[in-house]
Amino acid sequence: MKKNDEIKIAGLLGIIGNIFLLVIKSIVSIISNSQSMLADTFNSASDIFASVMTYIGNKIASKKADDDHNLGHGKAEYVYSLLISVIMFLLAYKVLKSSIMSFFGNSEYIYSNWLLVVCIITIVTKLCLFIYTRYVSVKYHNMLIKSNSIDHINDCLLTGLNLFACIMSRFGFNYIDGVVGTFISLWIIYQAFKIFVESYDVLMDKAISDEIKNRVYEIIKTYPEIKKVIHFNSTPVGYRYQISFTIYVDGKMSTYDSHFIANKLEKEIDKKIDEIYLTVIHVNPIEEDKDDIR
User: Fold this and answer.
1) Residue 66: what are its φ and ψ, rounded to 5°?
2) What is the pLDDT of residues 175-190, one digit of tens each?
């Protein structure tokens, strides 16, 4: 199965699974007036939106480079991830406000065995979705699917808390419902913030990490002909980078030999460092006695 097909399937499964969970959670939260289940319901609503954005974002990001977009459309997935984070913020704030009011207002809570059933169904469904999306995200290094997989496993943990609140309410500890609803809301805000920062960094062309940059220099140092390296630049495109830099070689070296070294180095970097998909090297001459790899 091709990369884009697997990513599309992961997105569609997320949409179908979350729509199913949204429906049953909505019904039970209305019946029981449970704030923790209401928070879980809004969480499923944001998951549906995230899955739809995953599908659309991947479709755009998979387009090849063209005259108007020379580096391709890889950043599309980060644009949509940023949008997902904003929606998550808004939904979480609404549920947080409702949960706090419920905790202090002593709103009526009606226990139902269906609360337990829905929690168990949610945990099983989300665990299955996590296993599949985790596999796809690791296989293809896709930011959107990675965000979805993290969201699925977080949902398992949050619904586990919801299950705990349901069980405790059975014994009269109804205030735990508001506490859990508040916690789930804060957790959604935290996850939204993480997605926002990661997406923002890529969209603002954050430079490649020092760790990856050092790996590039380690490869360069295996070429004794290269005397100096300057103007190291990097541009993120999707989850990978395009890098460029200038190397200095002996001015007496032939143009053919110097460009042969540059071409060989470009291919080696692209092959050995998965985070880099394209290396562009400019060659300049230098006096024989100059030697400064960085």
Assistant:
1) -140, -175
2) 777 787 788 788 878 8
